[in-house]
Batch of 4 targets.
Target 1
Amino acid sequence: MPILALNNVSKSFGNKIAVRDLSFSLQTGEIFGFLGGNGAGKTTSLRMILNIATPDSGKIEFFGKPIQPEHLHNISFLPEERGLYRNMTAIDTLVYFGRLKGLTRNDALQRAKSILNRFGLSAESQKKLTEFSKGMAQKVQIGIALINEPKLLILDEPFSGLDPINQTVLEDEILCAAQNGTTVLFSTHIMQHAERLSQRILILKQGETRFHGTVAEALRSVGNTVMLTTTANPTSIPGITRAECVSQDSSGWNRWAVTLGPEQSPSDLLLYCTQNALPLTAFEQPRPTLHDAFIHIAGNAASPVSKAA
Ligand SMILES: Nc1ncnc2c1ncn2[C@@H]1O[C@H](COP(=O)(O)OP(=O)(O)OP(=O)(O)O)[C@@H](O)[C@H]1O
């Protein structure tokens, strides 16, 4: 049985459809990337999952049932809008939330110390949060989400505001939690995190699901792109759907990004180039990234074959 299942969930604000017919389910221990541009509907969806906002239609179930108060001990949420009791110390804050989530005082204290240590905050454990920087306070808030070792961890933009070292610490925490059986649902604008962490992703655009599948499937959707450095204009080569001159050289050797149609392979293109004596100094096939796939899926519609600038 899935830990969480959404079926055709929709929500509007006035005339604005924030989320339309959202459906997905999460299995134990998986890391699911919930992606979309600004205003795509990610936060609204996460708020509906947590019963903070009510869907207009559709069904959301935890362990096969509508959300119940007892589920809340097994779910943690890092909201996009962070807020803490600033007059408490870091350690007291973590222990307080650990106790609220049902831990004994001793367990809460041990876990709080371990979390502060992992996030490099042991020396600051007795300092009040008023003395903390934004990023340090965010690490405490992430610690609050982790302290009960939840079955489902929901993180809204967890990497924003963290420096690169702490982003890596958080990636490791997410991977470690998943290895221990926690299911992780996280939203992000930073595709590198989603590519490294997620088994499956969902991409929203203006409330609509544009993609739902594995990272490998998303990468395949970009299609084959080949980089050519040539003095010729490749726009008329048969089988290519798009050719964009990405840099020009005064000697006439221009670099082109060429997208191949579904029937065309890079080796077909290379054969065509050699058989037709196309002057070439470079022929590269870059691996697409999730960033490329995201732009392809959630960006503007692909433009037709474009000529050199
Ligand atoms: N309380 C609200 N009242 C009116 N409109 C809202 C409200 N909350 C969200 N919206 C609208 O719903 C849409 C989705 O917003 P949401 O905050 O879910 O997007 P998001 O994907 O989390 O965006 P971002 O990445 O910028 O945080 C937006 O058009 C937003 O203006």
Target 2
Amino acid sequence: MSNENNIKIDVSELNLWYGDNHALHNITVPLYENKITALIGPSGCGKSTFLRCLNRMNDLISTVKIDGAVVIDNKNVYDKDVDEVSVRKRVGMVFQQPNPFPKSIYDNVAYAPLKHHQVRKGKECDELVEKSLRDAGLWEEVKDKLHEPGTSLSGGQQQRLCIARTIAVKPEIILMDEPTSALDPISTEKIEALMLELKKKYTIITVTHNMQQAARVADYTAFFHLGKLIEYDETETIFVNPSNKKTEDYITGRFG
Ligand SMILES: Nc1ncnc2c1ncn2[C@@H]1O[C@H](COP(=O)(O)OP(=O)(O)OP(=O)(O)O)[C@@H](O)[C@H]1O
């Protein structure tokens, strides 16, 4: 694997237990800046669990125990002096089901930046809302109805609204957990095109069950099986010339 890229998230010897269930085993992986990394593997192999470790979302589950390190820009986000809210601001997340707040399109985007005092109400906030919606590829479709409910949009538009809401707080990393699995093919295509645009500014880690999607958008792909990272490499290598038999069996549809 080429090493010309900057490491944005350096995960080392990460283990996670849900009670007695050892769900992630000693995961060590460098995730690269301004790249899209796809996490693939059969259901229950730990993809979402791993993704949620990157912004400390698993801290919200009381039975979880984690050890190991997730180092972002030279600082382990699990160090005692790190506040998890600040981690979640730097590492945004987009979920499988579009989940806009029960608020207007405008307020969905403006809510967090206003709450965190990143912008003032009025012109400054208006500009941020417009920029975020533009960057999420949604502005032209919603600019005349910003005060209508976010839930009045189509599923694909709602997902782009959720992406606009995520980028409005200026994260450095965006985690996506099967961001297109609830969408039709045309909306999926728009989100994939958007991901390729967004990686110029952000580091993206995405979970997908869709092999074609991983092949289309991801620079790097990590294959998980039973809580272990089996293989991680440039996407083309994973799909064309995997070195592990399990990877080959999975991508050729022999299991999963
Ligand atoms: N909140 C939770 N509490 C307890 N166990 C959990 C929880 N979430 C996941 N697990 C367990 O952790 C393991 C990994 O699950 P995870 O959801 O990370 O897998 P996944 O690869 O994302 O699966 P899928 O593709 O089906 O979404 C499974 O054994 C699952 O049952």
Target 3
Amino acid sequence: MPVSQQSDKTVLTHPSGASAEIYLFGATLTSWKIANKERIFLSGKAILDGSKAIRGGIPLVFPVFGKGKAPHVTASLPQHGFARISHWKLVNSSDDAHTVTAQFGLDHTMISEEYRKMWPFDFSLIYTVKLTADTVETHLKVQNIGDKAFDFNTLLHTYFSIPDESKVRVVGLSGMDYVDKVLMASAKQDGEIAIRSEVDRVYANVQSTDLQILYGNEGGINLRRNGVSDIVVWNPWVEKSAGMADFGDEEYHRMICIEAGQVAEFIALAAGGSWEGSQILSVL
Ligand SMILES: O=P(O)(O)OC[C@H]1O[C@H](O)[C@H](O)[C@@H](O)[C@@H]1O
């Protein structure tokens, strides 16, 4: 079966051998394999029972990035919003000669009463995962199905599995301005990004549609954005890693988050409006 449901997760299998797994909790993609090699990082300490956001994979940030700030309506929501900690439904699946597709849905009737009170808007999210022999595409459609405008942030918060943080280079952001959340300062990217300490940066309005995450002489990933303008780069390094109960102290060596989305500014969505954005990951 190209798409099969295994209790709490959906498994996509491509005739080439490529595969992907998506938990219904958060519609979090936790695995993407090509040539039997895992490309996505999932912490060995990740909690997978739905009691906490999954540490790793591609958690979906919506409708707020980080903690909302009063007086904005997102101020009381949990960090990164409710999409990654709500139970989604598998709404569709299909396959043809090239692509295996699964679609997941979440709307306002499916989130907890508590979150509904915090964020009282009628919305529908459709998240589509398309697997081919050598790519995976993750696409989010946000619809305002109510009669009040709302605004939102969103991110495809992708944790990549890497051989060693010291070998990683992120290419394609040179010349871009960023906000450094560690130093609480603004700066301009000069050349490639290397990880030598905690990195937590927001690059707004990135020009190049493609960026590369290179693993020294061990290949890497090309990330292509469609319809989303910002990139967040995160590696927690030593202290932050030690402070996270669901992340191993040494796991920062084996992951980097490169997160495509809209976070520098909220996107305003009028009643009846819709928005879509996606990323396509391919192995280099
Ligand atoms: O611990 P979480 O809520 O999953 O957030 C994990 C990380 O997400 C993003 O990358 C933010 O830029 C970081 O500041 C944050 O630490």
Target 4
Amino acid sequence: MEWKASYRLLNYCKHLFHRRWTPNFHYFKTFYTSGCRYYFNQPSVLIKPYIGNFQQAFQTFKHPSVSLGMHQRNRCRSQYRCFASQATIIQRRSDFSTISSEDLSYFKNILGERGVVQDEETLDAVNTDWMRKYKGTSKLMLQPRTAEEVSQILKYCNSRSLAVVPQGGNTGLVGGSVPAFDEVIVSLSHMSKIISFDKVSSVLVCEAGCILENLITFLDNQGFIMPLDLGAKGSCQIGGNVSTNAGGLRLLRYGSLHGSVLGLEVVLANGTVLDMLSTLRKDNTGYDLKHLFIGSEGSLGIVTKVSILTPPKLSSVNVCFLACKDYESCLKLLLEARRKVGEILSAFEFLDHDAMDLVLKHLEGVRNPFPSSMHNFYVLIETMGSNESYDREKLDAFLLHSMENDLMSDGVVAQDITQASSCWHIREGIPEALMKAGGVYKYDLSIPVEKMYDLVEEMRVRLDASAKVVAYGHLGDGNLHLNISTPQYDDNILAQIEPFVYEWTSKHKGSISAEHGLGLMKANKIHYTKSSETVQLMATIKKQLDPNGILNPYKVLPSSLLTKN
Ligand SMILES: O=C(O)CC[C@@H](O)C(=O)O
Ligand SMILES: [Zn+2]
């Protein structure tokens, strides 16, 4: 029995990771929990802390190369209707101009031929969002190289009433980074310089178009890390991350970008360059305006430079993947991880049976860590610290307690970086697997964790079996990614999901956008989370900073509140 079980663990590691390793059986300990035996190789139950680039070794989540048919949608020149979002029926604002040959000459004059993109293939890509659900009809993308060029562009567009969509890596999931109609796309991709890094204060200053993964690599060489990490790090840009207040996998440990971003340079709609590029931790001189731009999705200004506090790289990293019989056990594990693992806890992610099933079916190279059985829930726990034996002791205490108290049904602990990255690949691969499975309705919700899974269960009761309700997310942050996967988009299914999902979230005092923003998808849904007074004040701020409403129109706030007086 003992040998069988340890063999199973050993076998798992061999199969999943195609690696040979020699466990030290001498150290195997046995625990009896609810009639099951659990075996962990005590000293190596925790992965050996590896020195080196942990981040880099993770699989980079690239855009799926699968060819997905464009979803059915009805669109005419003045009306945009996204099939997958019932209420996203908006009219093109008639006071916006269309591009003229004089406009093109002006832009070519300030940016040169290279900065003015009109070829159809490129425009098709930048008009289409990552999910291929939203598509604009822009005929022009501009590629400035400096904040001054951004300023000249916006000043001109403002005077001509030309609407603008700022675009970074275009990895957003709510249709916020693509035009709704024919807005001019202002790409930040050519503004990708790292300006400075001060090791002592650990502050990085860079341009908005820096790809997150490039910053991660740069900092790794200096012995630091970025305070945020996302599945889309290979494509997303820091300016987009800041503009959407991207959350991701490490928010549990390092907090949101409202805490890490120390300063910004932002270009306003009228072309004013707002220099708030502070590198100071403390500055109580009046209103801290940078926070207005963090998470405003490019609707108040275009972020051109970012100054960000970067935590030191930690040498001891552990990843474990645990199986649970019910959601209640996941919550208990979270509580115990907080208590016993404490300050070294860096991620606490969860996925349910349907999410695991989907990944196993649709993603190549992913193996079930527990090949002999499927479980109802899984959690991925990561710790990061600087003292190997201290970290091990903490994780050990947590795992032993969890086993003794029947909080997990099975568990594996990565023994090296390859195994750790395989565990992460399961979690990070879910959005790609969903895309490959067919149509997907995405909801990114903050809900008090005790209630969170009730929504998932209620949703399953509402929908028939052809719709797969898939739940996963950042459990440690109270963030549920509720996805309904169907063979294709269908308005009848959508009617069963919405407005139910928003009403349910609102009733339980949750947020209808935990980390993805509102974009085009949820601009008309903001009232489910924010009071009417708050939304009114937001509209007042928007009108003050962008009186002509040229910046990312139709997004974030309901258009009805922004009509010109
Ligand atoms: O696809 C989603 O719904 C979530 C995407 C992303 O925020 C994640 O956590 O993987
Ligand atoms: Zn997420």
